[in-house]
Design a protein that fits this description.
The structure is a homodimer of 231-residue chains.
Chain A lengths: L14 H25 L5 H47 L1 H13 L5 H12 L2 H12 L7 H28 L3 H27 L3 H26 L1
Amino acid sequence: MPQTRHTERHFTASETVRDVVIGMSDGLTVPFALAAGLSGAIDSTAIIVTAGLAEIAAGSIAMGLGGYLAAKSDAEHYASEQRRELKEVAEIPEEEMEEVAQVFRGYGLTQDQVAPVVHALSERPQAWVDFMMRFELGLEEPRPERARTSAVTIGGAYMAGGLIPLAPYIIMSSAHSALLISIVVTLAALLVFGYIKGRFTTARPIRSALETALVGSVAAGAAFLIARAIS
Amino acid sequence: MPQTRHTERHFTASETVRDVVIGMSDGLTVPFALAAGLSGAIDSTAIIVTAGLAEIAAGSIAMGLGGYLAAKSDAEHYASEQRRELKEVAEIPEEEMEEVAQVFRGYGLTQDQVAPVVHALSERPQAWVDFMMRFELGLEEPRPERARTSAVTIGGAYMAGGLIPLAPYIIMSSAHSALLISIVVTLAALLVFGYIKGRFTTARPIRSALETALVGSVAAGAAFLIARAIS
């Protein structure tokens, strides 16, 4: 079970864009909601800024370092499955040939139609294993050297996103006034970010903008109500 | 570019386990680190509990609702790509047959070896499209009905995870004492959770336990130092 998000290589969005999207989605949302929630309970921006920066540190490390370790696990999982397939291809080739045939029979092909491909693969063990990894197990070959860059990009995007809703609390002394500015600034940022994200990932950027703003608003509203209820 | 994490169907871990792992990883880590960080700056457990519960609300909604909307986008992306493939298979079958052949040539097969499969697929448009979706585009068919269950499980696991580090602050009045209990309880929870996660996802559960505890510790340490530095 890979723990990292699945990358679709055939898409136009670069991996860096993907990482920025992952980090910034949460970075804009959670610190915004936390600060908004605290504004419902306390009027000291100093405490809200402290909590906000602590959250940004925690969130960016959880996503960055957590993602890095998960990517490393995925790479090791791939390598161990690959070793197993190599072994099976050498030791029980008939069963593995049957597994290749099964992949194709799932698409309605007959044994006769599949036989040339099965035979050809069985003469190229390395290609055979590559084929099994992708088409039987559905695993994409991970690139371990990407894990570090990806972790830094995701963590950095979380930090950059989190500082936007927090900026008004850093500048102003009244939590109430800062909350109003933070809502305006962050909703604008969520709409712009959601739109750009939508341009890269879907055919409907305007809906992506509205959905992204919706998640931020619901999270902030819930945090605000909870903080006010218990304070 | 699918925005949701990739599910490896062939694995033994159920989808529910996967969702609990995703939600609880962050739920144990971020509220723990936030509360620890605030303990470095303020001694009022009331404020720490308020911030912690606001964060749990925000984080679980960001992960749950955000994940739900991303899964819906993925499902629509799949449907739109499927419509495009159906259209291309009907309108430009030669080019699509060449694309099937290319998939196999990537594994060193010759045109002769591939021809029977290409021909057989070309006579079954629905199977052909299914084949292209999986083997050319690398897309797994999403199940939209899963999105809601998955969102609730991830959000619920985040909440359950987040209440563990927060419990000592709820019960006790001294932030300093609560911090010490929270560290002991949460490190134990991270080790147990990391071990169980490792049993499901890797061959090395003990390393998974240590890594999970490491991410939580680094996040909490960073949050603590930042909160103390600015307070």
